[in-house]
Amino acid sequence: MVSDCSGGGGNGLMENLASSRFVAACVFAGLVVGASVLALHLGGYANAVGMPGFGKKKKRRPVRVYMDGCFDMMHYGHCNALRQARALGDELVVGVVSDDEIIANKGPPVTPLHERMIMVKAVKWVDEVISDAPYAITEGFMRKLFDEYNIDYIIHGDDPCLLPDGTDAYALAKKVGRYKQIKRTEGVSSTDIVGRMLLCVRERSSGDSHNHSSLQRQFSHGHSQKVDVGGSDSGTRVSNFLPTSRRIVQFSNGKGPGPDARIVYIDGAFDLFHAGHVEILRVARALGDFLLVGIHTDQTVSATRGAHRPIMSLHERSLSVLACRYVDEVIIGAPWEVSKDMITTFNISLVVHGTIAENKDFLKEESNPYAVPITMGIYQQLESPLDITTSTIIKRIVSNHEAYQKRNEKKEASERKYYEEKKFVSDD
Predict the structure, then answer these.
(1) Which keywords annotate this record (predicted)?
(2) How far apart are the first and last CA of the chain?
C-alpha cells in the first residue's frame, strides 16, 4: 500500500513540476519577444529622432593608401597610377615631392611645386594631398604616415625607384609588409615627354620641314622609334601608346547630363596638360551643371600651332583631360568650328574660352570658330586664372636645354632597363 500511495503522489508532483516549467518557459519566451519588439521600436524611434547608440552598425574604418611622386610634366600615366592606387583602398593620400628633393635626386623639375599641387589635387581619384613629401620613404616619414595620416599601405608602380646610392626608395615599407604594387602605364613617362620636346628643339633648328612633319606624325600616332639626341649615344624612346576602349571607360565618369542640366562647352588642344588648363576648366565647370570638353584632332592642332605640335597625341590628351575632376565628358576629335548642329546635338547652354591662349586673335579672324555661339548670345570669354600655355612649358625646356638633356640621359638608362626586363603585372 505504501508503494501505491507514494507512486501516485510522485506522478502528481511530476505533473505539477512539468506544468510549472511550461508556464515559466512561456513567460520567458513572452518576455524575450516583448523585449525584441520594444528594442526594434526604440531603435526605429531613436533613428528617427537621432538618438545615439540605437539601431546603428559599427562603421568600418576606411582603408587609406598612400602614393607619392614628383608628378612633373603630369600626364595620363600618372593619373592611371593614381586610379589604380585608389582602387586598392577607400581613400587615397598623395605626397608631392618638393622641388629641392627632385633637384637632388633627378635634376631640375619642369613644373614648380605649386603647379604640380594644382595638377594632383585636380585628379578625380585623389582624396588628400601632402605637400613637400620626401623622395624616399624614411623611417620618420613612414611613422608619420602610419600614425598621423592613418595610412594602411604605401603604393608604387612595378618599375624600380632607386636613390642615387642605388638603394630602393621603398625598402622600409616593403620590410614592414605595408607595401603594394601597381602596374606602370604602358608607353609614357615624363622622361619620354621631355625627350619629345628636346627632339623638337633639335629638329626645328635643322630647318628640315620634312623631318618636322615626319616627327609630328611619329608623336601623334605613337610610333616607337629610337632617335639620337644631341649627338650623344643615348636615345630618347618615342612613346608607343596603345589606347584601348577599356582605358577610356576607366577614366570616364560613365554618366551623362540630366534632362535640365546646364551644359557648358570649352574646347582646345590641351597639349601637355598643365595647371593653366586645370584652372580654366575649374572656372568653366562652376558656370553650369555639366562640363563638356572638346579635344581638337592632331591635324587641327598641327594646322593652327605648327608642324611640331601636338607633343601629345589625341588619345593621350583626351585621357589627361578625362582624369580631371572638373570634367564630365570629352569629345575626342572635336571640330575647330562650333556649329549650330553641334550645339543642338549636345544641348549646349554656354560656350566659353579663356583669355590666355596660344592664339589670342582668333575672335578677330574671318574664320572665327565661335561665330555661331556669339550670334546666338551663348558665348562667354573667361578670365584665365594662370598665365600658362603649352608654349610656356616648351620654353622652360628650351631655356634650360642642357640641364634637361643631362637629366634625360641619366633616366634613359633606367627606362631602357625597365622595358628590357619588365614582366606582366595584372591590372584592375
Answers:
(1) Nucleotidyltransferase, Transferase
(2) 88
